[in-house]
Design brief:
Largest sheet: none
Structural class: mainly alpha
Shape: globular
Strand content: under 5%
CATH class: Mainly Alpha
Mean pLDDT: 87
Helix content: over 70%
Low-confidence stretches: none
């Protein structure tokens, strides 16, 4: 009996499945089931009175139609794209710049690089609260210095002109350490002999950056950009704590709108439909990104 059991366990395929089973169960419980349940809510009429009930009228794609035909949909989608594009662009550029700077040998460069991570480990909700105070019209530190140099106070978070820019600054600042660490992991993998050869050949900094460093850390760049897109596209705590989507939808992005529909208006069907739209947009962006960038570079597509 024990011999048969031992031979069964030693079977390579069975052993593989046994090791994978806990991970598969975790994915099923914490990823697949919530996605399926969310999609189920999005095709039913779900309100505060029917949320915990099984009696939910099936409405098909009506929730999606309601969301897309909403007068604010185009503006909110544009806000989401603007917020995501500029966030990803600048947090990547600043992250790469900081990674290159702290990759140089100078006193305390490693401890200082570690200190920059403090901003990233703070929860986004707390970051949003801190930046809301910094941008405060009356007692904010930023307006205090602007008044000192004679420019005067600016309504950073209460005017449509500056609200999105203020939220962008906060989100970019928050994500720079994450980008810096991912870029640093690529920089340290470049052999010193390559740097020495470039120095002997008399290459300038920008020549070495463009022709040596960037090509050699492309896998890190690809991973950083796609993760930035995913994290930025589902940003909620930072924006909610800074502006709650205002003023007049100036900073309302799709995740914030989903929350407003679900918990302000108790229209859970529309709220979950917006969440599914976010998922579909991320899926489309990921497929396009992999097909036209990662796939071509690695020769797999």
């Amino acid at each position: 009996m024990f011999t048969n059991l031992k031979s069964l366990i030693c079977n390579s395929k069975l052993t593989l499945y046994l090791f994978l089973l806990p991970a598969i169960m975790m994915v099923m419980v914490f990823a697949i089931y919530p996605l399926l349940y969310n999609f189920s809510l999005s095709v039913h009429e779900v309100t505060s009175s029917t949320l915990l009930s099984e009696d939910r009228p099936f409405v098909g794609l009506n929730n999606y139609k309601e969301v897309i035909l909403e007068p604010d949909f185009i503006e909110i989608l544009r806000n989401t794209l603007v917020f995501s594009i500029f966030s990803v662009l600048f947090q990547f550029l600043f992250g790469l710049a900081f990674a290159l700077f702290f990759h140089q040998e100078f006193p305390l460069h490693k401890p200082l690089r570690g200190l920059l991570l403090i901003g990233w480990v703070i929860p986004p909700a707390v970051i949003g609260t801190i930046w809301r105070w910094l941008f405060n019209c009356d007692i904010g530190v930023i307006n205090y210095f602007l008044n000192m140099i004679g420019i005067g106070s600016v309504g950073w978070l209460v005017t449509q002109t500056f609200a999105m820019s203020s939220v962008l600054v906060a989100n970019i600042w928050f994500a720079i350490p994450f980008n810096m660490i991912l870029m640093t992991s690529g920089l340290v993998s470049i052999p010193n002999s390559i740097h020495d050869a470039a120095a002997i050949d008399g290459t300038t900094f920008f020549q070495k950056l463009w022709h040596i460093i960037i090509p050699m850390i492309k896998p890190n760049i690809y991973a950083t950009i796609i993760l930035d897109i995913i994290y930025t596209f589902r940003s909620f705590p930072l924006i909610w704590n800074m502006t709650k989507g205002g003023p007049v939808n100036a900073t309302t992005v799709l995740p914030v709108w989903s929350y407003i529909q679900s918990f302000n208006f108790f229209n859970f069907g529309a709220g979950t439909a917006i969440a599914v739209i976010i998922l579909l947009l991320l899926l489309i962006i990921s497929i396009i990104y992999i097909k036209f960038f990662v796939g071509k570079e690695e020769g797999v597509l």
